């Protein structure tokens, strides 16, 4: 199962903070609390996070498979970001070459 980048962002934030409020999550993601709650509900349904009555969110740690799965997802997410950064650098170099070529003609 592969999570969307946004859900991966939620997991990364909660993992980084250990626990965070729904309000703080919404602020970090720059979305409404309602949207943030939707993300948390989906991750809760999938068994990755849990939210208490005070709307504090934390990773579910009662299942070792979930932690391993989360780590794999984070690694995939990070490798995708690195690949995109590399592509971006290549495009920048190509653009510079085209600009130089344009100046010569």
TrEMBL record:
It comes from the Archaea. Residues 60-101 form a coiled coil. Transmembrane segments: none annotated. Pfam families: HTH_24. InterPro entries: UCP032840 (IPR017009), WH-like_DNA-bd_sf (IPR036388), WH_DNA-bd_sf (IPR036390). Gene3D superfamilies: Winged helix-like DNA-binding domain superfamily/Winged helix DNA-binding domain. Keywords: Coiled coil. The keyword Signal does not apply. The keyword Coiled coil applies. This is Winged helix-turn-helix domain-containing protein. It comes from Acidianus manzaensis. The lineage of its organism: Archaea, Thermoproteota, Thermoprotei, Sulfolobales, Sulfolobaceae.
């Amino acid at each position: 199962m592969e999570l969307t980048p946004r859900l991966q962002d939620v997991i990364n934030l909660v993992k980084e903070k250990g626990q965070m409020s729904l309000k703080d999550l919404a602020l970090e993601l720059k979305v409404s609390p309602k949207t943030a709650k939707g993300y948390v509900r989906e991750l809760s349904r999938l068994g990755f996070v849990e939210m208490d009555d005070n709307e504090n969110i934390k990773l579910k740690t009662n299942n070792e498979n979930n932690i391993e799965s989360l780590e794999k997802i984070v690694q995939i997410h990070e490798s995708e970001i690195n690949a995109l950064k590399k592509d971006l650098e290549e495009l920048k170099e190509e653009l510079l070459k085209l600009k130089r070529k344009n100046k010569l003609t």
